[in-house]
Amino acid sequence: MAWYEKLAIVVGMVLFMECFAWATHKYVMHGWGWGWHKSHHEPHQGAFEKNDLYAITFAVIVLVLFVVGLRWPPLWWAALGITVYGGIYAFVHDMMVHQRFGMRWVPRRGYSKRLLQAHRLHHAVKGKEGGVSFGFLLAPDPVKLKRKLAERHSR
Ligand SMILES: [Zn+2]
Ligand SMILES: [Zn+2]
């Protein structure tokens, strides 16, 4: 495989994973998988939450993809793309937005601020239903999200 084919797979997978994460978050985690995800919408003590089981599950799946990918390189590069997305997600979502593992950096402008606000608005709704902003790296405009939330509450 040429380097640009590998690069295309990795970049493509990162983009695909954002869509995948959006769909999983909206339809699985806020659907039949709420049992695990609920912990992420509640205040809690301790370093871990039940929701981390999702990260562990995805890590196991990706590990299997890497192993199978030893025989079929495109799959190995796809697994790497998923890992890159997972790394960005852990850094931005867990460390920056939720300040886990002792990180205390709050972005005050630019896209990272928008991303932070969009995800905070996701957490503005405590329950399973009626949430907004299920995606992650592609953050919608916070002003629009607020309007959407306000509309739902006035109904
Ligand atoms: Zn959620
Ligand atoms: Zn969160």
TrEMBL record:
<feature type="transmembrane region" description="Helical">
    <location>
        <begin position="53"/>
        <end position="69"/>
    </location>
</feature>
<keyword id="KW-0472">Membrane</keyword>
<dbReference type="InterPro" id="IPR045019">
    <property type="entry name" value="BETA-OHASE-like"/>
</dbReference>
<feature type="domain" description="Fatty acid hydroxylase">
    <location>
        <begin position="11"/>
        <end position="136"/>
    </location>
</feature>
<keyword id="KW-1133">Transmembrane helix</keyword>
<keyword id="KW-0812">Transmembrane</keyword>
<keyword id="KW-0125">Carotenoid biosynthesis</keyword>
<dbReference type="Pfam" id="PF04116">
    <property type="entry name" value="FA_hydroxylase"/>
</dbReference>
<feature type="transmembrane region" description="Helical">
    <location>
        <begin position="6"/>
        <end position="24"/>
    </location>
</feature>
<feature type="transmembrane region" description="Helical">
    <location>
        <begin position="75"/>
        <end position="92"/>
    </location>
</feature>
<dbReference type="InterPro" id="IPR006694">
    <property type="entry name" value="Fatty_acid_hydroxylase"/>
</dbReference>
<comment type="similarity">
    <text>Belongs to the sterol desaturase family.</text>
</comment>
<protein>
    <submittedName>
        <fullName>Sterol desaturase family protein</fullName>
    </submittedName>
</protein>
<keyword id="KW-0560">Oxidoreductase</keyword>
